[in-house]
From TrEMBL:
It comes from Brevibacterium spongiae. NCBIfam families: GG-red-SF. It comes from the Bacteria. Residues 6-327 form the FAD-binding domain. PANTHER family: CONDITIONED MEDIUM FACTOR RECEPTOR 1 (PTHR42685:SF22), GERANYLGERANYL DIPHOSPHATE REDUCTASE (PTHR42685). This is Geranylgeranyl reductase family protein. The lineage of its organism: Bacteria, Bacillati, Actinomycetota, Actinomycetes, Micrococcales.
Length: 433
């Protein structure tokens, strides 16, 4: 049996796993990251960093130049209810006023290589098979199988030992499930479908969101769906086109989202110069775990970050920002306490879910309410029809959906900022309810 020792073992090298690996390595910790695939590898996603995510990448010390494939955008174009609005990202102190797009095929590798340059040991094509659990019930490493980054076998029974293990292995999180952490049924769940197309508008300055997605029911009637369609220009000759749907809708289990998306592309494709002939591959779909749909985020030595802990924004389906944020918060706690005596360290690591709840819990609770409301087609249609024609309402909506507002306790804030901030403070944190 091959054995490897570290202070922290991270399972999964997506943005969350790579980010926490980079942070801890930069702080001088011995970190091993296990990735079941080899880079480059794909992930079904919108391929976009909002300004919040760009800020988080900056905290990591990453450079994101256009020459490396990062395509900037200056705002969001909203289409629905007969309206078409272009809204620039708001100016918020400390947050860039632009977003970025890049295909996940290369984006995730950029995060992983940054973790390597920071000092983390990355093992590609090595799958974590099961947790190694001590007599006291706490995790103390993982058993894995595969080849390392040099192509050498490390298993079938390789043992990666560490007193702290990070689950960054995505929505299904085999590691978390092995530790008894199942998904919660009282949290919203989404599904997204995505495809790539070539288009002459690949360098558009705005990412685009169609907030009025429709489906035809069994009676032949058209219904509004609780979801949205997106078009994200990638600046490389292509766009990422996708559609998302929430399970708060009674149509969730019966709607063929790929068919809905295909019809939507046929209806609006002329605006972007796309059709079946411009497709670069099939439509693929994946689940979106929202609003902390797996808890607790610290359990017997295992910390959950990113999708493994259900950290997708219920308002807009964004997950990369919250993957990076949770990684930063977890890394700060680990770096502070990991070298304390074991009994003290274990107790102090309980601060992680509390800090995560303080940072995102109230906002995600509002997102759960939003997901419930738009599950009613009549309410959804009413909001689109009458809300999109009012500028102040749409400014509020964009700030709320993108989680881009000023904290009045930190900086000067307008009325919209104050309202959103107040709402996130008065609702109970979703990680605790």
């Amino acid at each position: 049996m091959n054995e490897f020792d570290a202070e922290v073992v991270v399972v999964g090298a997506g943005p969350a796993g790579s980010a926490i690996g980079a942070y801890l390595a930069q702080a001088g910790h011995e970190v091993i990251i296990l990735e079941k695939s080899g880079f480059p590898r794909d992930k079904i996603c919108g391929d976009a960093l909002t300004p919040r995510a760009v800020k988080e990448a900056g905290f990591l010390g990453m450079e994101l130049p256009a020459s490396d494939g990062w395509h900037p955008n200056k705002g969001l174009r909203l289409i629905g209810g007969g309206h078409r609005l272009e809204l620039d990202w708001p100016d918020i102190d400390g947050t860039p006023n632009y977003g970025l797009t890049r295909p996940r095929m290369s984006m995730d590798e950029a995060f992983a290589r940054h973790a390597q340059r920071s000092g983390a040991r990355l093992f590609e094509q090595v799958r974590a098979m099961s947790p190694d659990i001590g007599d006291d019930g706490w995790i103390r490493g993982v058993h894995a199988s595969g080849t390392d980054h040099r192509g050498r076998r490390v298993g079938p029974e390789a043992h990666f030992r560490a007193p702290i293990v990070i689950a960054a292995d995505g929505v299904s999180s085999r590691l978390a499930v092995s530790m008894g952490l199942e998904k919660r049924d009282d949290r919203p769940m989404g599904i997204a479908a995505r495809a790539y197309h070539t288009t002459p508008r690949h360098a558009d300055d705005y990412i685009e969101s169609w907030v009025e997605m429709r489906s035809t029911n069994a009676a032949g009637d058209s219904e509004t769906l609780p979801g949205y369609g997106w078009i994200f220009p990638l600046g490389d000759g292509t766009v990422n086109i996708g559609a998302g749907l929430l399970d708060s809708s009674p149509q969730f289990k019966s709607v063929d989202l790929r068919k809905v998306m295909g019809q939507w592309i046929a209806d609006m494709g002329h605006e972007w110069g796309i059709d079946e002939s411009t497709s670069l591959g099939p439509i693929k779909s994946a689940a979106l775990p929202m609003a902390f749909n797996r808890t607790p985020h610290f359990h017997r030595g295992l910390l959950l970050v990113g999708d493994s802990g259900g950290m997708v924004n219920p308002f807009n389906g964004e997950g990369i920002d919250y993957a990076l944020e949770s990684a930063r918060i977890a890394a700060e706690v680990i770096s502070t306490y990991s070298r304390y005596p074991q009994t003290v360290m274990r107790r102090r690591l309980e601060e992680y879910p509390a800090l995560l709840g303080d940072s995102l819990g109230g906002y995600f609770t509002l997102g759960r309410v939003f997901a419930s409301i738009i599950g009613h087609p009549a309410l959804m249609q009413f909001g689109i029809k009458y809300g999109m024609g009012v500028d102040v309402v749409m400014e509020f909506v964009v700030k709320l959906l993108a989680n881009l507002y000023r904290d009045p306790q930190v900086s000067e804030a307008d009325l919209i900022d104050r309202v959103i901030s107040a709402l996130t403070r008065i609702v109970p944190a979703t990680s605790n309810v």
